[in-house]
Amino acid sequence: MQAWQVHENGEPSEVMRLAEVERPTPGDGQVLLRVRAANINFPDALLCRGQYQVRPPLPFTPGVEICGETADGRRVIANPALPYGGFAEYALADARALLPVPEALDDAEAAALHIGYQTGWFGLHRRARLEAGETLLVHAAAGGVGSAAVQLGKAAGARVIGVVGGADKAAVARELGCDVVVDRRSEDVIAAVKEATGGRGADVIYDPVGGEAYAQSAKLVAFEGRIVVVGFAGGSIPSPALNHALVKNYSILGLHWGLYATKNPKLILRCHEELTELAARGAIKPLVSERVPLGEAAGAVQKVADGRSTGRIAVVMEGAA
Fold it and tell me: Which of 86, 93, 180, 239 lies at 20 to 30 Å from 201 by C-alpha?
């Protein structure tokens, strides 16, 4: 089979190599899946760079989220078991963790449903307890993680403010349903959000960026607001001033979605059932901005790593739905 492999750490476009390799053999509790589509996530770039919390042995195949096909023809969503990731014709996955693909989604959309939307659901509902009528601010609202949070926020009845970088991404955020869009490249984010909220700020802030975005969040969070820390795509990990959280009465909530797979896996299934229902009625639909063949995966991962993408880029195999 064909698979992209990383033999040394570095930038994806430099270290990912397409090779002919043997199909992986499933271990105990694993299943071999034919990959129909693989979604590109920022962690795939971190894996290539050797900067992710999981460091598979070299060489490995990146690709942490797929729509696959079982031996009996069922379409499933899975997180491949590294080092046999999803940027390949076949991947391995935990048989107990397979999830059925919602009928409303094609292969590329299904591949993009799992990590981003589960993270958004857990962040907004399990951690922040977002309520209808509240104001939700989403950093990087046109990106893969942010776009999922925007859709989930709207589905929950929140007023959504999207912060983006650039006019093209601002247009995407509006199409996603953001009630207010702030372009950080041409606007003062703090002034714009305060104006949009009458000086009150946002009840819930969803931050997958870190760095300057977090500094803005601390200034924009409302009384008894909640900042959900999802990641640090901006490359800088902030050091929050806890005295500021104390005097302003807000909460800083961390979210490591992957922990639920071992700590409370039933919640992942419950979340998927809710996501399936939302997809069925059209309340959520993964924004797949590009679909590329397997041979173009390395360049696509680099595009995501460089922050030049909107929504999701999916690697789609021949014959995919």
Answer: 239
